[in-house]
Records
---
Amino acid sequence: MGELLTTTNGWPTTAPGSPGHLLQLLREGAASTRPQLVELSGISRTAVSQRVDALLAAGLVVQDGAGASTGGRPAVRLRFNHDHGLVLVADLGATHARLAVTDLAGELLVERAEDRAIAEGPGPVLDWVRAGFEQLLDELGRGRADVRGIGIGLPGPVEHGSGRAVSPPIMPGWDGYPVPAHFADYDVPVLVDNDVNIMALGEYWAAWRHEVDDLLFIKVGTGIGCGVIASGRVHRGAQGAAGDLGHVRVPGADDALCRCGNTGCVEAVAGGQAIAERLRSLGSSARDARDVVNLVLAGDREATRAVREAGRELGAVLAAAVNFFNPAVIVIGGDMANAHEQLLAGVREVVYRRSLPLATRHLRVVPAQLGDRAGITGASAMVLAEVLAPGAVDRLVNGVT
Amino acid sequence: MGELLTTTNGWPTTAPGSPGHLLQLLREGAASTRPQLVELSGISRTAVSQRVDALLAAGLVVQDGAGASTGGRPAVRLRFNHDHGLVLVADLGATHARLAVTDLAGELLVERAEDRAIAEGPGPVLDWVRAGFEQLLDELGRGRADVRGIGIGLPGPVEHGSGRAVSPPIMPGWDGYPVPAHFADYDVPVLVDNDVNIMALGEYWAAWRHEVDDLLFIKVGTGIGCGVIASGRVHRGAQGAAGDLGHVRVPGADDALCRCGNTGCVEAVAGGQAIAERLRSLGSSARDARDVVNLVLAGDREATRAVREAGRELGAVLAAAVNFFNPAVIVIGGDMANAHEQLLAGVREVVYRRSLPLATRHLRVVPAQLGDRAGITGASAMVLAEVLAPGAVDRLVNGVT
């Protein structure tokens, strides 16, 4: 009988040889000709031919003329038409926002970044996002009709199914606000998630999806957050609260008061804000995570020691997560990761000492690669996973809604 | 375009209206007539009719005569033919083994349990399993041709893809042994996983799969293990090592030496063996987890206090797992769970104090329901998820292999 049919990155797919499945083979570069599609899908030449015609008619696939010969006459080369539509994405942070437009391959076409306080509330912020999207579309000479989906990241807990923020601590006025409704006139899927989840998905999508299934992304900035990729997908948990590593208790820190109201949370000893405060108590002028990083890069000994120690504290929490979740990769990002040599050294030291040998045998602990673009990359990937899911493509091509 | 097509319990499914999808609707009780299948699948009456005929011809579906009227003439009632085949399962523990045969609905038809040491090695143990399977089939008056799959649980880490044990600490001779090869002559899928994973799947399948997606099963016996259900499936992690909560460090226990070689592991302070040792040092005669449970049930004050405290230690580790994973349910099983009132009280006390409000808002911490049968129930569910996966059914019905 055989295995479940899944893609290399774990997304569910449809029956072998369905139009959506064939498109996926083309998108992932597994096939680029009809004979290859026949071989990989196991369906007949006639069926492949009909379904490729449907994908060509829908504009999702284009032909590039003659390709590599397969014995007799040369096969026509097929490729996914990543210009067939656009994705609008916004990564909204506490004080900073980034907007972008990508194509259907997730390629960044145009972007803008601005200081913008999320605390202005959903009306003003989302109006600004709308206006920004329109301007970016203008710059590209494209219009609303080209948009296939919208992806938005928020700096707080989000109920992914409905796209509403849930009791977000730093977002006054946003609690329960239905973000997708603000873009209803686009008539495309509008997906919302928290910023750490989309950063995790962005790093995974850009660098790891062809290699591994399970990954943790740790954002170390003012606080500490975590995005969990399980079997190639964001794991959100029962209330969308998964990944809250920042408030796990670390041993021996019972006097550290955390902004969450508990004591001893790892964020209260190893977050950027906590480190800056400790350095200030030693006479430094560090105000925040960025100042701490600058001190480390300038060779300040106390700052270096503090970041290394923060890495160890974080490592103690990650060791438990490694035993529990057994990820293949841990990616460390966020502002503090700009001092990644010291931070990663501390993390690795404790993770490899405290986790089980089987779980760390092939574990990699690496710095993030996308920097400030992780969020918009992930927001686009989130949208593409939905609008190009094989089932969605099948329904589109078959005219079923 | 819309959402990904997934079942209520998260398993990927195929194109809407494929034979495998229709069978799934019948299996889950979502539909029991052709008109209902038309409504739920969105495909035409003719297409439903053809595909149901194929499922009838394959023996996977049977007709039960007239069903509920839908306006005009009564609709014929369809149901999944759970007698169309059998699943053979074995739950092999350190010193005890249980064999069973289930139908295709996971219903237990016949079973046997025996003391049998896994340390006898793979040859003798698996020969005994084979002989036991044959006898159970004889008892049922059925034969090998009825068997659709085999599921086996082992008391150690397993590489699920290949069905091999990986450096199992208490299984001499098993390291790397290809368990499925021992049953190759059955010519059916042979799936192997570790005992805690199949227990987790068993409890999930029997009691929770229609309600929740994310669940943790904690086995508290001699040691402490954890099975992780994420989006309705067993999360195994990169090396199949996920769920190893027993060796997470707890604060203030640095002098507790664990059998893993580290100190301060939760298993070394809260496992059944550790509690028995502590009670012995206080003059008790408790040798193991079962003795501890008997003392608690007899009202022994020291034992009761020790189990409650063990629950708190376990709770500290689970609080971190709750923040990280945000499960909907935590099920506590294993021998120690027979003293579940004290154990769960300790766990709840700390989990609800230390986890974030959003993650615990609807969290339930409950005792296991299946007792010694969790393993065989889960082993059967593991096999059924594969052999009745929509893709597998589509291939079977379409004659594609």
---
Amino acid sequence: RRGEMAKSTQLIDNEVFRAYATYAAVVLLKMMLMSTITAYFRVTRKAFVNPEDVASLGKGESAKKYLRTDSDVERVRRGHLNDLENIVPFVGIGLLYALSSPELSTALLHFRIFTGARILHTFAYLIPLPQPSRVLSWAVGYSVTLSMAYKVLKTAWLL
Amino acid sequence: RRGEMAKSTQLIDNEVFRAYATYAAVVLLKMMLMSTITAYFRVTRKAFVNPEDVASLGKGESAKKYLRTDSDVERVRRGHLNDLENIVPFVGIGLLYALSSPELSTALLHFRIFTGARILHTFAYLIPLPQPSRVLSWAVGYSVTLSMAYKVLKTAWLL
Amino acid sequence: RRGEMAKSTQLIDNEVFRAYATYAAVVLLKMMLMSTITAYFRVTRKAFVNPEDVASLGKGESAKKYLRTDSDVERVRRGHLNDLENIVPFVGIGLLYALSSPELSTALLHFRIFTGARILHTFAYLIPLPQPSRVLSWAVGYSVTLSMAYKVLKTAWLL
């Protein structure tokens, strides 16, 4: 009976998996924050895309002037899409990596560098910082995911 | 030997994990449906983006008039991207949440509210329903994912 | 103690899970490759979107001419987004499928067809190949994911 009860908790009892769960949650929450920042800029810049979103701002033609693109809104949206393109592979490959029995210290190094690089990437994109800060923070996160993928393929390889 | 045979099935034997698997599959299928709706509108509205897609609709210049944007197609595409931005965090954080030993009833409540909210969001976006139906259904789904992330971080925290 | 040590490795010792890990890593790496191809085309076509990206290409107005869209860049970006829309459901549903105790041969068939279809889809999009090669390779991958979702829902169903 103990074995049965332990079933659902055993992965979360593993330290590498706990570290993965922590950092995966953090970077996914960081990605979710981009939705809120986009909404904030849409409201403060009065730049919307759907007619139903501006219905309360005026009647007929007077509301249509708010159906427009804004450079700050578009910048946040590009940052959000870049997060999707990079955080999705990290979360997917990172899960497999956490299950491939890496050393805890090595795993923490991967997770911490990736998370730090993506937070830096967001600041570099939104402030914006001069290049090459954005491209370098992107490349660091990308390399960490490649390194985890190498470990996964070395451990699991069954084609 | 029983232990060995049970390996692959034990997670799926756990009720919380089975609930997660069911709802994760449902929302991912709902997201996949957006591809088909986009394709349907592209064909019925004759609004394409790639030259090779309109080659069968006419020769040379006569086909180029179908390389255009259509407001219905763009609306479905925005709904699809919003799904990616919200369903990806749900699937990722939801998996970790399902492994953090929540009560089955609490887990079902989270999964059901999220799934209902995202289905409502799709109707609100595609019909479209007047605001604030879309923004509220988005906020409900977003809050459910935040609540699951809180449980994950409380259980797994290892930074 | 053996049980404890085995915790983190047991999933990766399962053959179906190892096959899943291999193919999921391969398609996620393929998706990541799209970022690099986009960057390659942005640099060679001199077509950028952020002012800070062209700062090194000239001063003031002379650099602004590189803030433009390029049809090759946009094509790669559409391929990348299509990967997100299709590879995310494969990775999510595929994980649940791998945990639903399918036959190894059946699982390998699903993973191999999906991976082959998405690689073909990328070539069909980027070369580009005449239709219906792109739409068919998309439909094959989509169908594989639907087939896996059916098995997941049949095994896990707990609504």
---
Amino acid sequence: MGMDYSRIEDWILREDSFDPEKLGKCEAVMSLGNGYLGLRSATEERYLNETRGLFVAGTFNKFDENEVTELPNAADMTAMSLTINGEKFSLTEGTTEDYTRELNIRTGELKRSMLWTSPKGTKVRLAFYRIVSLKRLHVIAQRVEITAVDSDVKVELKSGINGKMTNTGSQHFSDGDKRFYDKRIIQFVQTTGQSKIDFVDTTVHKLELEGNVLPLEAEVYIEKREIFAGYTVEAEAGQTLVIEKYSSVYTSRDLDVEGKTVAQLQELALETSKELESLGYEALREESARQWEEEVWNLAPIQIEGNGMDNFAVHFAQYHLRLMVPAHDARMNIGAKGLSGEGYKGHTFWDTEVFLLPYYIFTDPKTARKLEEYRYLSLPGAHAKAEHNNYKGAMFPWESAWLDDGEVTPEYMDVDILTGKPNKVWSGFIEQHITSDVAFGVWQYSVITGDEDYMERYGYELIMDTAIFWASRLEQGGDGKLHINDVVGPDEYREHVNDNAFTNYMAHWNMQKAMEYYHLLKEEKPEIYERLNGKLHLDEAYGAWKEACEKLYLPTPTEENVLPQDDRYLSCRDIDLSKYKAQEHVGGITRDYNLEQINQIQVSKQADVLVLFFLLEDIFPQEVKKASWEHYEARTLHDSSLSLSTHSVLACDMGEKAMAYDRFRKAATIDLGPFMGSSNAGIHAASFGGVWECVVYGFGGVRMLGGNLRINPSLPDEWTKLSYTIIWKGQKLAVEVTKGTVSVKNLTGTKQVELEVNGEKCVL
Amino acid sequence: MGMDYSRIEDWILREDSFDPEKLGKCEAVMSLGNGYLGLRSATEERYLNETRGLFVAGTFNKFDENEVTELPNAADMTAMSLTINGEKFSLTEGTTEDYTRELNIRTGELKRSMLWTSPKGTKVRLAFYRIVSLKRLHVIAQRVEITAVDSDVKVELKSGINGKMTNTGSQHFSDGDKRFYDKRIIQFVQTTGQSKIDFVDTTVHKLELEGNVLPLEAEVYIEKREIFAGYTVEAEAGQTLVIEKYSSVYTSRDLDVEGKTVAQLQELALETSKELESLGYEALREESARQWEEEVWNLAPIQIEGNGMDNFAVHFAQYHLRLMVPAHDARMNIGAKGLSGEGYKGHTFWDTEVFLLPYYIFTDPKTARKLEEYRYLSLPGAHAKAEHNNYKGAMFPWESAWLDDGEVTPEYMDVDILTGKPNKVWSGFIEQHITSDVAFGVWQYSVITGDEDYMERYGYELIMDTAIFWASRLEQGGDGKLHINDVVGPDEYREHVNDNAFTNYMAHWNMQKAMEYYHLLKEEKPEIYERLNGKLHLDEAYGAWKEACEKLYLPTPTEENVLPQDDRYLSCRDIDLSKYKAQEHVGGITRDYNLEQINQIQVSKQADVLVLFFLLEDIFPQEVKKASWEHYEARTLHDSSLSLSTHSVLACDMGEKAMAYDRFRKAATIDLGPFMGSSNAGIHAASFGGVWECVVYGFGGVRMLGGNLRINPSLPDEWTKLSYTIIWKGQKLAVEVTKGTVSVKNLTGTKQVELEVNGEKCVL
């Protein structure tokens, strides 16, 4: 009951029963999109516990001073109220047979079908189809087939645009112009309250009975924030009524319609509606499916043989990795829930650099570059944050939204179980490692792609500017060393710690990299050196970096070879964590202890020093990694969706294949698994990047180390073969791994590629 | 099925079946309140099509520039999610027997009970009780009884405060402070966005099993805009679990807590919670029921004998007339839907003066005075509107909200069926008769109550100031006459008409009354004359009034004795209106014709010249009334809830008793009747005043004419006896009417009362 994996060989995720209390899961994991639009798969007929959601990337708005900017939930155009012989169609009424909902991740089509008998006994067979076009970013198309089974039926349809949607009660839009054109095309203009982004929503219906297009005679309803059309059609027993609905969204933020007035957008949308009407659902579905094939499946094919579920899981990850990424616009980035829900408000975190970027770098470098350009374009916010905190350089926000928004982490969340007051969220103030994570992403991108143009325009500056921040951030200690006090590391169960290993090592890396590039620019790219020196005073900065790198305190392993996570962790008390290790829902420990108490226990929300080993894997000896792994793995609750894939990849590196596979399976089920509930607020974007990392970095053994490509594959017992492609400095390599063999082919073949495979250097 | 009148003899309105598609009716007509709070009777368990609503009188807020100010829908505290043995309680699931919902209008208590069998077969008997206290204006109390019928049950309750409520999508509140005190008391602070009114919402639960109070151990949930407690209780077969929930609302607009800071309000609300907890539901219900007895039923008893439904209807009207009136605060007035829904946004119209005021004047003069003080206090808005339109004096807004808001009529509504564009609402611009309606209300109030203090402080000034407006409003015509061009009269199916009879005659009356009072003040109250002359330049104004009254064009009857509604009406074409006269839902004609077309047809939305005859009944001869009645009644669709009672009262005056009774019955069923749907957005406040007018003005024959009291009763055939009380110049008179007799007693007896009964002058 619930999620059904019987058709995964056909790239289809199914739901085989309907539970009106558990709608969030499929709404999110079966959501549709194209990086511009994200549409939760809420059903056509409405339910009390539904969470409808339509998000347009980058259209951030701030509801009021008490809230942070968030991605607004746009007007809904997918709902359709159907009344069959006077009875409202709803799966909570009457009886439902043959129910399935299917997401075809290969074509991006959602289908739902059932045989429904109304409370009074009218029988209809219904099928609902829906796409968000990957070919036409602004377009949603729907098709509904209603077959009268054994009696004549009168179908009443009420359908249009509903602008009453909110983000958990916050209304981001002003009510605007509403129009019926030709008694057929419905249009609604909304404008975000603070950011003043205009949305032009347009929709039109087409009705067909037994293949004949019916003339539309709408009853029209215009109320506050909504505009609807009503149609009534009679069908005889055995006949099929088809309703198609074509919708489009244009906004004044869109680059592809830049400079158009609202009136021009309205006109354009009208034209779009007419074009969609003439194309029809099937043609729109077809061209979008072709686009999926070309843009995703041919571009970055991966194949796991030996386990169909694992194979599906990595494709499912790729499906969502395409939905979430605004490949069309460098002014926006990936939200922690993609575009599949209100969770994390559409904000971008370190997730992009550490968990998502590798996928795009290795499979779609153009899109990866957009993600990295975003960080450059959002420097104004990073400068503002640094200045606000009396630091220098670029201090990136922990949560990031529009380019100049700066820090947008909400200040309070959840409740303190002891005081009854909301908990203060410290990440926006002191989770500072994000700044070196951004620099690390720049470096990764540039080395793997060889995109020197990016570096010259943006990359060198970003690495210098972030290093300047770090030099200004350090504090002189009584021991003559420089320290980074009062931070939160990746392990958010520990607030206000000093000398967090991850933070200190990554800051050190950041400044080292800046010094390295300083020399490089001065020697090899004097013009760029001059420009950046003028802008950032590099010569002065260099001195600061040098001193800082020499004096920065870097935690060293204990006698037992355990790298201390921070200056307190190892001296905290141990408690029996088995209850929380076995939990079904994350965060159980916060129901028993408040954060202050958790701070006194050796317990981690997620991998902390382990992520450090993952990113800077060549600076720690194997025995430190091993001992630290054993210490921290036992104390990690994986209360973050980011944690599991890191553990899996590291377990691979350490030859712990069974454990690696176990963690991979767990990571793969975060959204795909049968648990109803955990995906309600949206999918876990980073975990999809993590799934790809488990497969290609972990079992596939791919890593960029010190600028070089290394492939050390090692398949889990369950797999017979793994094949994937990666793009290394512009050359697309096809890798095939079986139990005993590795083959790497250069599919591009325009440049020589040097790499190391299982310890042996090769040239392709 | 649906509304059930089997218990009306016990003052109880029932619903005998539950239809999840038709929730609005009972939510509105069974709503609870006390003039400060208005609470729609949405159920504890939630449904898709519910419209929850909690309104606090006078707390207007404007969502944004595109919208007008409206009464915001405050956070919900009545919802309770109940899970019984793991199954969510909902009447759309499982089976329900013995269902009833009952509103006791005598005590103001709502009760709902049923035997519910869950889909898996768990049987529980449930009873829900609820009051809004008439004794403690800030308080809502609820009680739920859950009896395990034949098996042990585990009950999970999730209940708290939900701040995600909106007004049809417009969110009026900033999210604010959320707190759990003692893991027991839940508090939530919201602040309106533009008007900056703080709301402190507080709630606390008490759980009892078989009479034993259970210790509360809440799981707490704090999210954006919501704060909830979760409780789990197990009951054995046969045991009854009782949940009581006590909630309070305080706002920074409240007079009774004026000057308190938010922190002080929070403290006060905490104290209130503790007091309510210790009192318990039964004591709160009891004291509130006593208050209903004293304040309403003993104050203004009415009894109709011979027809129980009519008797109930007038009590039902009185019930809602108490719910809707902010008797506690002169800075607010009655909304067109009372406090029972979002319809008309909580705004005050001419409904107050013409349809509602008579009830309060004759039964509760203190409250009537508050309503009239409101008009004085809102003069700043009226002055602003006049100035904005280049007129002088006080031009009252067609729709009125907070004192200095001025005109708040929305600019657009519905859709033009021809152009597909929203219709412009002209009332806010040109429905100008409201200004003389306000003056008329002042005069009525002062003459009937004899409240000279009111007149001296506010009344004379209001009548002068409104007359100054009218003198400045008139336009010189080519005929040497003054005209009032381009208005909407009470009949809103006719826009942009000239010389609307109602408008012109009432303007004339207004200026005449001002001239009369000018003389009176000058001669008898020179101090007041001096004060007002200084403020309003009365001497100058008097000249303008005199000329205006002489020259103002007053439409005269045709040869057929029909008073022309305006300069065009009688020359418009007639069409067959039978389709619309027979309609079940109002406004049918607007689906066939747009407003421009309707303007060319002899058709009326509501009584127009008939209202004029009703207000100024002594200036038109009987034959004009009769001929006009016949002409217009045939062409009136009663598409306004205000229309029927006017027709009924006039039919009484003309001796058309059968027709009068028919119209009365129709008026009485507007909200009380069995039609589901028409009350969704709230009850029809004016129609309740109209019901009282039908009874006391119409059949009871009471009228103030030229300053004198007249009682000409005439019972419909269906009634054997009618008794009621009215207060005339401070003396409470008890009137008893049977088929052949009229008796009037002075219950107060401190002053002589002169009146005319059935044409005979009497002195009591």
